[in-house]
Amino acid sequence: MRPGLPLLWRRTVERYNLVGSRCETCGTHFIPARNICPKCRRKGKIVPYKFSGRGKIYTYTIIRVAPEGYEFFVPYALAIIELEEGARITGQVVDIHPDDVKIGMPVEMVFRKIHEDGDEGLITYGFKFRPVNEVHQ
Amino acid sequence: MRKVAVVGVGMSKFGELWDLNLRDLVVQAGINAIKDANIDGTEIKALYGGTMASGRLIGQEHIAALIVDAMGLNPIPATRVEGACASGGLALRNAYFAIASGAYDCVVVGGVEKMTDATTAEAVTALGGAGDQEWELLQGATFPGLYALMARRHMLEYGTTEEMLAAAAVKNHANAMHNKYAQFHNPITIEDVLHSKKVADPLKVLDCSPITDGAAAVILMDLEKAKEHTDNYVEIAASAQASDTVALHDRESLTEIRAAQIAAREAYRQAGITPKDIDVAEVHDCFTIAEIMAIEDVGFFPKGQGGRATLDGETKIGGTIPVNTSGGLKACGHPVGATGVKQVVELTWQLRGEAEGRQVADAQYGLAHNVGGSGATCVVHILKKP
Q1: Do B342 and B357 contact (CB within 8 A), yes or no?
Q2: Which residues pair with B47 in a beta bridge?
Q3: Which of A34, B254, B339, B362 could form a disulfide with A30 if both were Cys (CB 3.0 to 4.6 A apart)?
Q4: Can you list the alpha helix ranges (DSSP code H) found in chain B?
C-alpha cells in the first residue's frame, strides 16, 4: 500500500521518537502504544513511554525483492530488534553491509528516510537501526 | 450442536488462467461440487464465500453476492468471510456453524482468488495487507521477509538447514505431478531450490508459493440428512480456530505459530483423537518454513524436528504422515481465498479413496491447517471417514 498523508502524519511523534506505552501494573512495554494491557486488562495502568532506541538484533533477513517504493534500497537488511526494555520492533538495519548483520548484534535507532513516492510525492521518514560502535559505549 | 458432513467437493484448475475471470473460476468449482454431491441447487440454503483481496486485485468487492448470482442461486443469503490467507478455512467454519446450529440443512462454501490480472508487484502489495501495515510493511517488510525472519530463528534454535526447507518444496512438487488441478507439473530437486533466486534470505523463490488463480467449493449437510442422501460422505469431526498478534515481532516465540498449536489441540479434543491418528494432512505451506513449523505445531513431530523429518521423507506419500498430497500451496498453487477450501476438497478425495496417483492407503482421518498472515489467524479442521 502507498501510505496516505493522514496515516503518516497521525503517528509521526511515535515513529520519529520511538514513543510507545508501558503498563505500570505489570511493567510491560509496548511499541506501538497499546491502550489496553493484554495481561492486566482492566487492572492495567497505561502510560506513554519513550524508548531508549537501543537493543539487539533478534532475527533478520535480507530483502532482495522489495515492495513498491522500496526498490531503491535493495538489498536491505530487515530485522526484528529486541529493545532493551523488552519490547520487539521491526525495522531496517543500515550503515552496515547486509551480509555482515548478525543475530545478537547491538544496535541503536536512527532517524532516516523510509521511502519517497516518486519525484513530487510524499517523503516518508521514520526509524531504522544501525550497529552500535561498542568501543564508544 | 448437530454433526456436519461434507457431501460434495469440487475445484477449478489452479494456475495462471488468463482466459478465465473470477466468475468462471467459482462457477467451475461450484458446478463440480454440486454434481459431486448429486443434489439440486435448490437444496442449498446459504452460501459462504472466502476471498482475501479481490478489491485490491480486481477492483471487485461484494464477492459473496457476485458468487451466488453467478451460480444462479439467488435469493439465498450469501456472506463473505475474510481472514487473509485463512479466508477459505474460515468460510468453511462459518458454514459448519450454520449447519451445526440447525439454521440450515445444506449450504455451500466457495473459496476463490483471481490474482494474475494484477502485476506481481500489485499482488505482493495486496498480500502485504495480511500483516501490520503501519509497523511491518511500512518498514519495508514483505511476506517472504516475515517468514524468513521465522526461518532464521528456527535455524538458530533447532539447527534446521536450507536443505531441510528445500525438501518440503521438492516433496510438494512431486505430489503435484499426480494432481491434474495443480499449477505446477514439474519435478524439482533440492539443488534447484538452493540455486533459485534469493527473495529474502534464507528463502529462495522455490521456497515460496506462487501467485495463482483458482476456486474450490464444498457442499455441507447435516450428518443425519447426509446419511439418507449418500454413502459417499465424510464427517467433519472437528472445527477449531485461534488468533494471535498481527505483527510478528509481538510474539514471544518466532519458531512456532501459537494460534495453530491452540487450534490443533482444540481440534484433537473435539475429535477425541491424537496427532498419531491422523493419516493425511494438508498444511499451510505458503513458504517451506511454514510447512516445517506446521507439522510441529499440529503435533506430528516434536518441536525442532520438522526439518529433519521432512528431509528424511517422513511426510512423503508412504511416509509416517503424508503431508500436502495435493502439492500444497507450493505446487498445487495458492489462490489465497480458495486455499483453505481446497485443503478440504483434497482430504475428502483422500478419505473417499479417490485421490488417484497420490492416494494414501486406508486414510481414516484427515487434518486441514490453514493460516492467515504470519499466524494471526489459524483454523484447523479434522475430517473423518464414516
Answers
A1: no
A2: B78, B108
A3: A34
A4: 22-37, 54-58, 63-70, 87-100, 120-128, 143-158, 162-176, 190-194, 223-229, 258-271, 288-297, 306-311, 328-331, 336-352
Q: How many CB atoms lie within 10 A of CB B88?
A: 37
Q: Do B199 and A67 touch (CB under 8 A)?
A: no
Rounded Cα distance between A44 and B150, Å, is: 31
**Interfacial residues of B (vs A; Cβ cutoff 8 Å):** 121-122, 124-125, 128-129, 133-142, 144-145, 148-150, 152-153, 156, 197-203, 247-250, 254
Residue B277, amino acid: D
Q: How many CB atoms lie within 10 A of CB A75?
A: 17
Residues 6+ apart with CB under 8 A from B307: B154, B158, B159, B160, B161, B164, B165, B167, B292
Closest to B140 (Cβ–Cβ): which among A11, A32, A73? A73
Fold classification of B129-209+239-384 is Peroxisomal Thiolase; Chain A, domain 1 (3.40.47)
Buried b (16+ CB within 10 A) or exposed e, B119-152: eeeebbbbbbebbbebbbbbbbbbbbbbbbbbbb
Q: In the Cβ-directed half-sphere of B287, how many Cα atoms lie within 13 Å?
A: 25
Domain A52-137 sits in CATH 2.60.40: no
Q: What is the ipTM of this complex?
A: 0.95
What are the residue ranges spanned by the domains of chain B?
A: 4-119+212-234, 129-209+239-384
pTM of the model: 0.97
Encode pLDDT of B73-110 as tens digits. Answer: 999 999 999 999 999 999 999 999 999 999 999 999 99
CATH code 2.40.50 region(s) in chain A: 52-137
Evaluate whether B369 touches B340 at the Cβ level (below 8 Å).
Answer: no
- DSSP structural state of residue B324: -
Tell me B268's DSSP state: H
- Per-residue model confidence as pLDDT tens digits over B334-378: 999 999 999 999 999 999 999 999 999 999 999 999 999 999 999
Asked if A23 and A39 touch (Cβ cutoff 8 Å), the reply is yes
CA distance A81 to A52: 13
3-state secondary structure of B122: helix
For residue B349, report the phi and psi dihedrals to the nearest 5 degrees: -60, -40
Distance CA A61, CA B255 (A): 15
Of A1, A11, A114, the CB nearest to B125: A1
